[in-house]
Amino acid sequence: MRQQENTVPQNTRCIGLGEEEVTEQEIDTQLRIWSNFVKLQVHTLPENRFVLNPDTPRVRLLAKGVLSNEKNHGLKYCPCRITTGERFLDLKLICPCNFQAQRTWREKGECWCSLFVKANKKE
């Protein structure tokens, strides 16, 4: 898989930014999808609620990576995780992942790439 470094806050490395271009309209659509995903938490306990990272440039770059992965690899893989090439294992890397089961969620209050953060996270 092709890897490319980008200037992203918090030294995040993103993959999937390559081959086919992603449009601003596609990014905006993905952001609406993620915003709707956040709104689905009506039955979630307050301490488990999450929001999109308020760092808009970071979120847009992550959306571009996810969409690029979809165009170039067929699925919306997290741009901050490296796929293995084994489809069954790589299904765990589809964004959004099951981030609340991950250690980074428990320790930092955010998903692997910081796309989603705990709603009550203290800076």
Describe the structure.
This protein is mainly α and 123 residues long. It has a domain at 9-46 and 55-98. The protein is 36% helix and 5% strand. It starts with 23 loop residues before the first helix and ends in a 5-residue tail after the last strand. Residues 1-16 have low confidence and may be disordered.
Sequence-ordered SSE layout with sheet pairings:
Blueprint: H1 24-39, E1 50-52, H2 56-73, H3 87-90, H4 103-108, E2 116-118
Antiparallel strand pairs: 1-2
Amino- and carboxy-terminal Cα gap: 34 Å
Secondary-structure content class: mainly alpha
Please state the oligomeric state of the protein chains shown. Answer: single chain
Q: Which stretches of 5+ consecutive residues score pLDDT under 50? A: 1-16
Strand element count: 2
SSE string, helices as H and strands as E: HEHHHE
